[in-house]
């Protein structure tokens, strides 16, 4: 097979550090034809590339990383019916590492690749059918936006939520940033739409037990925990809520706009489940909807794709002892405050009276090596909003302690101006300590707050009545389980990683699984809706086709050689291998030909078909022989 | 239980009562506390004035003597110095080889297996004090105070004092300022800062109706006694433990007249 080599100069990125002329000379001397172009990815470059390939030839491209333009060159080569294709990342692996040694690295890589190409056998393109259904994990605002859009277009959608009610964290917000509009007025119509949508099947109180199958045909097992209230019979009158003798009540319908409008009995608190003979809620229910005998139910679904929208949660502030959360009265988080606002509860300070002076502390745990080494971006706006509301409701003195203010959208700046006009004060610096021990005896009965004022250049102390801690965000509990069930990649903080942050933000490395909302990083309401709908679009594009094509036939298994250690099954990050009656089975749609299993196999029983072990070894020999 | 133990210089003078109470506790609980043979000063604070490396040498010598074993350290400052020296020896190969060279002249070897340093507070949590409590003892509310060197930069268990004292029968009062600074070595500079620091620490204990403050560090106790205005009972936590076990106050270094 004749092999043609194409170099891309990448506008100097490659050619400035790497002597392409010398490379060309070296390769031509051994009989290989070499072409060079300033921008091989440009339309002109692509035409140049396409025109020079003849059917049956091998193609080697020396350009940037295969993640960037690899698929373009590959498709062009296939279009011209090239027999073999390979790409060497000359830019990342040779040129960008510095002028020194660039040539040595490049020639080794290229010769190794040429050696490997002589063994190359193209993978086989295969077609797989797609089931229409869509599973959405998480019933917060992102999940339900995705579910609504997909259902509207006619897809059967299964919306799974761990909590008894849908709506996630958005239903417990009082006002929204930056216009201070009523949150439930915006969120509740979407929630109501959930029930009306015909193609949408709701699974509250449910978690995923198992996910099997392949993209386009997943088999999912769900477990629905008992609610002890019959959803067919209950019409949500709420009579039962009033008769429960336990405090806090064992039967609740917590959110201000509950969807579904069916109460739940908390077995841990309910007297009936603790061996007493209470059945007041059952007696008062006119529809006879209370079912103490209910047990967990299993559901089995067949879906084509999965949207993960597990969301985030505020950082557990009690981990930072010097803020005194859960230890000192009058120290609450922003999320406690929002809940109090939505339930219209009274808010008291340290001494049990209405607060006269409030401190709002930004960046609690954020941008801190010991806690969250990142900025959560949306909390500054939330904090500012809370400060204004506290100023308006209690006409209290409000102090914001901030590190930097990050206010999104043009209206964010307007909100800051509005806060300043109302007399909210801003102090730039970190809070060192909150305690009930005063510095001056006359401040007894108030909280003492020590902080650095970096603009006033000094350490100062304040006596305050109420402290609002504004924590950063971490992934929701249980997202690790979802990640391991679906084998999704997460970043170092546990947020799901998209395939490409900027250009493919809702896709994952796994086909048929998408991410939406704050599961991939802190997001505010509008961004969550946006990414939910984007994920729905991706899901529609994939599921509305009856089939998809993918490259298969990467791996060959030699039964005689295999020692049955199944290291390959353990090592596969895509769950593409499984054992079937002592035989290894490869799930073709999941296998992407990474070759990890072949390199892990101690007896050499697995063979990477396009680049077998001999090719890899020989190319390594060439690579290290040159150096 | 046999334990290697580093008493530190303060046990000889400033914290004689701390030393006595530890010895009394050990004999009551049948702990074989074996002082580290031929131990020397950990370097304390004063050594910062000396040429670089002298302080590290003093601490390293103790570490070399105890290598491979558990070393119980009673004084907070000694704990800090030994921990710090251990960290330097682990992470800085240059200092490590220099120290190994100097120690070789003395016939000591700096083995790679450095001792495991234990603070007294953490060590005592291994003992279940509720089993040894005297039947005649009636607990009274005490507040606890750790000070700087048990909490940073090498944090120990900051619930240890609460655990042992409440097991011994004292109602322990949780305090906010338990890891705050007492002023340390500021008295030598005659700074007004220290008065405010100590006053605030004792204010909290008094405000929460504690009958005494349990401390773990000789310098903290000294400062709180000198600058406590009005005076407030401050004792080592080992003295409180000894009282709960029914040991006579004079054995614990508590003067008769109190």
What does this structure look like?
Chain A: InterPro entries: 4Fe4S_Fe-S-bd, 4Fe4S_Fe_S_CS, FAD/NAD-bd_sf, HdrA-like. With 627 residues, chain A is α/β, with parallel strands linked by helices. Chain A has five domains: 3-122, Rossmann fold, CATH 3.40.50; 125-225 and 298-311 and 476-549, FAD/NAD(P)-binding domain; 230-295, no CATH class; 317-474, FAD/NAD(P)-binding domain (3-Layer(bba) Sandwich); 553-609, Alpha-Beta Plaits. In chain A, 29% of the residues lie in helices and 24% in strands. Chain B is α/β, with parallel strands linked by helices and 258 residues long. Chain B has two domains: 2-122, Glutathione S-transferase Yfyf (Class Pi), Chain A, domain 2, CATH 1.20.1050; 135-252, Rossmann fold, CATH 3.40.50. Chain B has nine helices and eight strands. Chain B has helices at residues 16-29, 54-65, 76-91, 93-105, 120-124, 160-167, 193-207, 218-227, 237-244; strands at 2-6, 32-35, 70-73, 116-119, 142-145, 172-173, 212-215, 234-236. In chain B, the strands form two sheets. In chain B, strands 2-1-3-4 form a four-stranded parallel β-sheet. The longest helix of chain B has 16 residues, at 76-91. The chains are: A alpha/beta (627), B alpha/beta (258). Chain A binds chain B through residues 321, 324, 327-328, 433, 435-439, 444, and chain B through 158, 174, 176-177, 196, 200, 203-204, 207.
The share of residues in helices of chain B is: 25-40%
The shape of chain B is globular
Q: H/E element string of chain B?
A: EHEHEHHEHEHEHEHEH
- Separation, N- and C-terminal Cα atoms of chain B: 34 Å
Helix content of chain A: 25-40%
Class from helix and strand fractions of chain B: alpha/beta
Largest interface: A-B, 11 and 9 residues
Number of helices of chain B: 9
List segments of chain B where confidence is low: pLDDT < 50 over at least 5 consecutive residues: none
